[in-house]
Specification:
L,D-transpeptidase catalytic domain-like; 32% strand; alpha/beta; 10 strands
C-alpha cells in the first residue's frame, strides 16, 4: 500500500466517524460502566452505573488547610485491613502507627486509592464528621459504606472475590490484603 492510498484510507475512516463534520454532535457520550463521583460541595459520593445513580453516600472531605484535590482519577488499588502510618505532617506529630485491625486505626476496614499515594476513600469511626470538611484531604465514609463501595469497585473493576474471601477479610482483621484492579474504575472529584 502506498503512502497516498494509506492516507486516503485513514481519511475515509475518520470521515466515517464524523459524517457531518467533527462538531456535528457535541453532546457528551453516555458514560459506560461503574464510576464514582465525589461532589465536595454536597459532601456526597455518587456511585453510578452508566448514566444511572445507584446510591449516594455521605462523606467527609478535606478541610480548608488540607483540601481534597479535584480532578479526574482512576481507582487501581484497594487495601483491605490497612495499617496506618502517621504522615510526616504537623497534625500527626506524636501519633503512633496502627497495625491492621487495631481499634485506633483511623483507616478502619478499607482504603480505596484514587490519588495514590496520598488520597483515598476510607472508613472512619468519627461518623459525626460525615457531611463536614474535617479530613486531611481524603474522603471519609461510614465503614459499612466504604465496604460496599470497595466491593462494587472490585466487581466492576475485574477483580471480584467470593463471599468466603470477604468473610476472611472481615473476621481476620490483622491480615492486610491488597487488590489491584484489572480494569481501573473512573472517579471524578469536583465542587
Amino acid at each position: 500500500m502506498t503512502n497516498r492510498s494509506m492516507c486516503a484510507a485513514l481519511m475515509g475512516a475518520a470521515l466515517s466517524l464524523y459524517p457531518h463534520g467533527p462538531l456535528a454532535n457535541t453532546a457528551a457520550p453516555p458514560v459506560a460502566g461503574l464510576h464514582l463521583e465525589a461532589k465536595l460541595d454536597q459532601r456526597k459520593l455518587y456511585v453510578e452505573l452508566g448514566n444511572d445513580t445507584l446510591v449516594i453516600y455521605p462523606i467527609a472531605v478535606g478541610r480548608g488547610s488540607k483540601p481534597t484535590p479535584t480532578g479526574q482519577y482512576h481507582i487501581r488499588k484497594i487495601v483491605w485491613n490497612p495499617a496506618w502510618i502517621p504522615p510526616d505532617s504537623k497534625w500527626a506529630k506524636g501519633k503512633k502507627p496502627e497495625p491492621p485491625g487495631a481499634s485506633d486505626n483511623p483507616m478502619k476496614l478499607v482504603k480505596i486509592f484514587f490519588g495514590e499515594p496520598d488520597y483515598y476513600i476510607h472508613g472512619t469511626s468519627e461518623l459525626e464528621s460525615l457531611g463536614e470538611a474535617e479530613s486531611h484531604g481524603c474522603l471519609r465514609m461510614n465503614p459499612d459504606d466504604a465496604y460496599n463501595v470497595a466491593r462494587a469497585v472490585m466487581d466492576h473493576g475485574g477483580s471480584p472475590r467470593g463471599e468466603s474471601w470477604f468473610w476472611r477479610v472481615v473476621h481476620f482483621r490483622s491480615e492486610m490484603k491488597t487488590v489491584y484492579l484489572d480494569h481501573p474504575i473512573p472517579m471524578s472529584v469536583s465542587y
